[in-house]
Amino acid sequence: MSALLEIRSLSKAFGPLKAVSNVSFDVQKGEVLGFLGPNGAGKSTTMKMVTGFVTPTSGDVRVCGHDILQAPVEAKKRIGYLPEGAPAYPDMTPLSFLRFIGEIRGLDGPMLHDRIDEIVKTVHLEGVMHQPIETLSKGYKRRVGLAQAILHDPELLIMDEPTDGLDPNQKHEVRNLIRRMAAKKAIVLSTHILEEVEAVCTRAIIINRGTIVFDGTPTELEERAPESVTKNRLDWVFRTLTSDEADAPQPIAAPAHLQKVAKR
Amino acid sequence: MKNVKSIFKREFLGYFATPVAFVFIVIFLLLSGAFTFQLGDLYERGQADLLPFFGWHPWLYLFLIPAVSMRLWAEERRQGTIELLMTLPVTIPQVVVGKFLAAWAFTGLALLLTFPTWLTVNYLGQPDNGAILAGYAGSFLLAGGFLSIGACISSITKNQVIAFVISVVVCLLFMLFDLPDVADVLSGWVPTVLIDAVANFSFQAHFQAISKGVIDVRDLVFFFSLITLFLFANGLILDAKKAD
Question: Is the ipTM of this complex over 0.90?
């Protein structure tokens, strides 16, 4: 079976600045890929290229076999995308907004009506469906964005920081939702919350200065940390992989008395 | 086509979700009334026609149309919704046309609501209603021309004020092309053919011909090709700079 998302030597330069250089990876159905990296590493730019918003300087993106540049409409039909900050039309209500998205996504009549009902229950938008989006809280706005992304039951779901700005309960809900959808889709989500990777992802890619510095399972990622690091092991690996060479944190040898404790 | 319709519907209803529609229509009706009856001397002329009414339209549109078009794309950029729109399975021409038609239909609605003026002249005398209909058609085309320029300029920036100001200036140029002053500036160093060509781009000349009831194919071709040209440019600009 071929991958739902294929990325080959993807690069993007803004003038002399290389935002993304030579990034390649595949995402299969059933995978939840956590896309990690410090701010400005090229996470969002990569996602914008995958969804056809930013045109790559070079390289290819194929979604279910459709090239995003050659057959953009076919590729975009199969993608659900939650852009960073979950933009939505502020004057519209969630209901009119989801109807608009649904129509563009080729749903109509009773089918669209049923689907919106279903999604509203999934992301818990009941009660705010007739309020202008601009009056909603950040958590509700994010849910509207999420609803819009999964409305057409896409094969490939791409989310740029889906839990950013949510409270712990809301984060928990979104993670549960992602787990429930995982089996039937290929999911790519960017985050800088490392626990999120352990919580929902089957695979992690770390990108730094536009290039991939790690690609593997969350467990493999954690195993990169030496045994002397006992707490926040993922943090340690993340910092080691993404810091500049000069000020990379050296593995700090634990004080002697603690080492003894650890060995017991 | 279905996508154009969806975009059109969202955009058109969008005008009514905020006070924009109300303010625009009221100001348009007040100003067109004031210009027609006060400055245009509709009564004092003693003629049952709407020439004073249509005569003011280019000047009204000069400020009001950029106010409608300025938000078309600038707002999408500022809100970040352009990222949403451009990653939906729609093509750029579909979005450009859908948005333009919505804005055009909206101004058309404002224009239709001036019908009491038409009733007034019919009450007072026997106007040539065919000519009046042509006048409305001409005014509608003129609005479309201004709108296409405004839409194109709105796609350059995320700042609505910049979009408004530049649109007014460009529209003003299109209104002034056939003034003798322009010809004076150009004459002597530009061939006459070119001066005529520039003057031919004037909105005024084409609009006045239609508003007098003479619908010439050349005037129609002028407006439709102008609209096509600016919407095409609008699409090219979006394609080249979607993200920034």
Answer: no
